[in-house]
Amino acid sequence: MNRATSTGTQSPAPHVADSHDLIRVHGARENNLKDVSVELPKRRLTVFTGVSGSGKSSLVFATIAAESQRMINETYSAFLQGFMPNQSRPDVDVLDGLTTAIIVDQERMGANSRSTVGTATDANALLRILFSRLGKPHIGSPQAFSFNVASISGKGAVTIETKAGKSVERRSFSITGGMCPNCEGTGRVTDFDLTAMYDDSKSLSEGPFTVPGYSADGWYGRIYSGCGFFDPDKPIREFTERELHDLLYKEPTKIKVDGINLTYEGLIPKLQKSMLSKDREAMQPHIRAFVDRAVTFTACPECGGTRLSEAARSSKIKGISIADACAMQISDLAKWVGGLDEPSVAPLLGTLRHTLDSFVEIGLGYLSLDRPAGTLSGGEAQRTKMIRHLGSSLTDVTYVFDEPTIGLHPHDIQRMNNLLLRLRDKGNTVLVVEHKPETIAIADHVVDLGPGAGTAGGTVCFEGTVEGLRGSDTITGRHLDDRAALKESVRKPTGALEIRGARANNLQNVDVDIPLGVLTVVTGVAGSGKSSLVHGSLIQQSGAADAGVVSIDQGAIKGSRRSNPATYTGLLDPIRKAFAKVNGVKPALFSSNSEGACPTCNGAGVIYTELGVMATVATTCEECEGKRFQASVLEYRLGGRDISEVLAMSVTEAEEFFGTGEARTPAAHKILDRLADVGLGYITLGQPLTTLSGGERQRLKLATHMSEKGGTYILDEPTTGLHLADVEQLLGLLDRLVDSGKSVIVIEHHQAVMAHADWIIDLGPGAGHDGGRVVFEGTPADLVAARSTLTGEHLAEYVGG
């Protein structure tokens, strides 16, 4: 056999397949992007910076990640695509060198009440297998330990066909599940207050139900009055015992109402399926108010809230049941699993240890596997999603992160940085939208967008290394090394809110006085008990209710694509009235959801065309050209502008427009002032809420709540999504609130806000059961001088103390 030998000393030319080492974007115009062109290195960590609204998410999520996911979806059959989110091609000329994109965003995790931290990751599945193999006594397969699998048994005759003919045999079967039969695996039982569900003095035809959506002329009302099981004109209090049982508990039954085939079901099982299957936090406000009024939740007395059957709880490994394991703090569970040595399940134990260690490493060791997924914050949900990617065998994919440091104490940010670098070092491209200088510092490549927000942004101001950014004259470059100084003097409190014996979640009998009339910052590592202290204890104190507490948390704004800042803040009402008064017509004409709506697109501005199993296509309405109003309505003017032109204005423009001249409208101007105060001067009045970033939505809520008559404001990480340059504006806003006589309590990790505080309450020293205690109370200067806590050390380093 002849061997070819190389006589040359030069290294071979690189293979053509290795030349595709860039993601090229040319001519991106999504949202406010202005023909943006960038080249991003693959298998590197790229951080995107810029002020809020500069176009970071438009470039990373709405262009690069969206096109990658759209192209992957197109590889599936048309039938499967019909069940996937419809994504149109981003407005961009060239997108080249894309790889599979995995988006790890801050969307809250499933609203299903059966979803827990364990089920959302692989941890529960691995534990179930472990207990089915090693648990004593042995009770069955892994599904015998699943609270989502019910135990089923049955028997009967089966017909078997063979060459010899048919024979009948009796067979029986059984499935052993781990679901508690009393609570059906939810861990809680419900008790309905019937008086809050209907007025028993009314008949079904009079609309007795007080349940949202169950009016007499609605579908549900028509089903109950037309089902034929009851006399629709008979008051409910006169129902027989059988009739009342059928109204409340009847099993699903086929009926016909107005010639339409339907299924009738008792009121209580129907509510349990439609409303109570969701997590409370995910309910719409009016439904949540009804549930709070009509339903009482208590831990299931049979399973003690563990969701598991008695058999599943009886099988143990070294005295620990699967219910005990899921209730443990994950850091403790990791130690327990680490102490198990069983060669027959060694690979399984190795995988489980890695998963649990990843929780600890990512800063979530204080959670437990039975924690409902819907109760996690946005930052916790994002880090939980990261768990499944850390052990992934995939390489050469693009991971896209949206501010992964949200909710992290400065002590924990270094851990997150290490994880991002680990993902990169496995040969992946990591794209991160971020404002924290600690994470910007580890980037291989930086793309800075701006220079401003909204229409003033959308261009690339800088592209290169971190050192290059530091030396550039961009807003981010100039503020990268900003450090807030400690205040020379602090305000004196005017009183105090007393918290005594707080034991919510991990709090350990905490007694603390929160001063009034000053800016108080509650801080501590993630999981130390900050939210438990403020939201779980303070708001429930009777003294807090008397003080008029306004709480602004990070919950998502509920709204459709028709919702916009003008409708959400109530700004549209005075604007409509001003147009109506000047033109002598009805205010309803100036609503795109009412009489003034374009009849062709019903005020949506676009027409959605359903193409069966193919993607729905959205096209701009030709009748109104996307303006959403009838042509006759657009003839009415205020200050020389029609209603569509007003809704296209930015907050800054509108503030000037409604401040003087014919269009002067004090009520509208007041709301616009508040929007500008929270740094939203660049957003347009008619911009759909679905296009706003998380930080923008939170500040929109803040602007709306600022009008409420509250003596105490509670803000939950208001720096979320804020650029370094905008934090200064936020501090000014907090000062104005305090100076106007309000008390402001802020849960925050940002050192600039800590340094600006009048009083700091630091919780810790660790997370979970290692936290829950007040480790420091005092002024920021005292905290820096003492350096007695993790927060004190990081704040001292930040201010150069």
UniProtKB/TrEMBL annotation:
<comment type="similarity">
    <text>Belongs to the ABC transporter superfamily. UvrA family.</text>
</comment>
<keyword id="KW-0227">DNA damage</keyword>
<keyword id="KW-0228">DNA excision</keyword>
<dbReference type="GO" id="GO:0005524">
    <property type="term" value="F:ATP binding"/>
</dbReference>
<feature type="domain" description="ABC transporter">
    <location>
        <begin position="485"/>
        <end position="790"/>
    </location>
</feature>
<keyword id="KW-0267">Excision nuclease</keyword>
<keyword id="KW-0234">DNA repair</keyword>
<keyword id="KW-0067">ATP-binding</keyword>
<keyword id="KW-0963">Cytoplasm</keyword>
<dbReference type="InterPro" id="IPR027417">
    <property type="entry name" value="P-loop_NTPase"/>
</dbReference>
<keyword id="KW-0677">Repeat</keyword>
<keyword id="KW-0238">DNA-binding</keyword>
<dbReference type="Pfam" id="PF00005">
    <property type="entry name" value="ABC_tran"/>
</dbReference>
<dbReference type="InterPro" id="IPR003439">
    <property type="entry name" value="ABC_transporter-like_ATP-bd"/>
</dbReference>
<protein>
    <recommendedName>
        <fullName>UvrABC system protein A</fullName>
    </recommendedName>
</protein>
<keyword id="KW-0547">Nucleotide-binding</keyword>
